[in-house]
Amino acid sequence: MSPLALGVLASGRGSNLQAILDAVAAGKLDAAVRAVVCDVPDAFALERARRAGVPALFVDPKGPGGKAGFEGRMVARLREHGVEAVALAGYMRVCGPVLLGAFPGRIVNIHPSLLPAFPGLHVQQAALSHGARFSGCTVHFVDAGVDTGPIIAQAVVPVLDSDTEESLAARILRQEHRVFPLALQLLAEGRLRVAGRRVLVDGRPPASDTDALLNPPAGA
Ligand code: GRF
To answer: Which of 83, 85, 146, 151 is surrounded by the most beta carbons within 10 Å?
Structure first.
C-alpha cells in the first residue's frame, strides 16, 4: 500500500505538525506529508515544514472571493501536491463547503478537550473553570460544525488541583502528539468506518474495563 498522501493545515506553532512529521520519519505513520498550508504568513508551522523539506505554502485568507475563494486556492494547492487526506493541526478556521467538498470524509482535526465537552476556543480554561476531573484531546473527522464531527480517538488527561491553564494545556498537548499520529495511522491503514456518529475501528482489540480511569484515584 502506498503511503497516505497527507496535507496539513496549520495556523500557528505547529507542534502537532511536528509530531506528524516525526512519526512519519520514525516509520510509525505510513504517510507522506505532501504540503503544509498556512493562513498566517509567519506561522512557525511553515518553518517546520521547510526544515523537513516539505512544501510550505501560505494562502492568503484576505485574497479575492471571500471564504470560498480562499478555500478554493487552498484546495488547488493541495491537489497540485497530490494530497488525498487533510490533517488540521491547529488550523484556526471553520471548514466551509469548498474544503469539505474537496475531501469528503478525509479531513481530520485535533482538539484539546474530550469532545463533545468544551468545543471552540479557550477550552483548557473552560475545563478548569467547570471543575472537570478529566480533560484530554480528541481526533475527529471534520464536518461543517465547530468540533462536532465523528470521534476517531481520544486521550484522557487528569485535571490536577494545582493545574493552571498553562500546565493543563501542556499536559494535554503531550497526549495530542501521541494520539494524532495514531489516529492518522488508522486512517492510512483504512481501518476507520463511520457509522452515524460513531467511528468503528477494524482490527484492533477493544478497550477493556481495566482501561477506566478514576480521578481522584481510588485509595489503597
Ligand atoms: C492544539 O492544542 C490543537 O489541539 C488545537 O490547536 C493547538 C495547536 O497547537 N487545535 P500546535 O500549533 O499544533 O502546536
So the answer is: 83
Tell me the CA–centroid distance for residue 44 and ligand 1, in Å: 12
Which numbered atom of ligand 1 lies nearest the CA of 89?
A: 13
Domain holding 54, by residue range, is 4-201
Pairing, β 85-88 against β 198-201:
unpaired
Q: With beta carbons less than 8 A apart as the criterion, state whether 30 and 39 touch.
A: no
pLDDT per position as a tens digit, 117-170: 999 999 999 999 999 999 999 999 999 999 999 999 999 999 999 999 999 999
The residue assigned the cell 484492533 is: 204
Q: Is 111 a catalytic residue?
A: yes
Looking at residue 220, its pLDDT comes to 61
pLDDT at position 115 over 80:
yes
- The answer as to whether 211 is a domain residue is no
pLDDT band for position 218 (cuts 50, 70, 90): confident
Is 28 part of any domain? yes
Distance 209 CA to ligand 1 centre (A): 30
Q: Is residue 8 part of a domain?
A: yes
Closest of 97, 92, 131, 91 to residue 7, by C-alpha: 91
- How sure is the predictor about 106, in pLDDT bands with cuts at 50, 70 and 90? very high
Q: Which is nearest to 20 in space by CA: 104, 122, 109, 120?
A: 109
The residue whose CA is least distant from atom 8 of ligand 1 is 90
Domain-located, residue 159: yes
Return the CATH number at 141. Answer: 3.40.50.170
CA of 13 relative to ligand 1 center, distance in Å: 8
Number of domains in the chain: 1
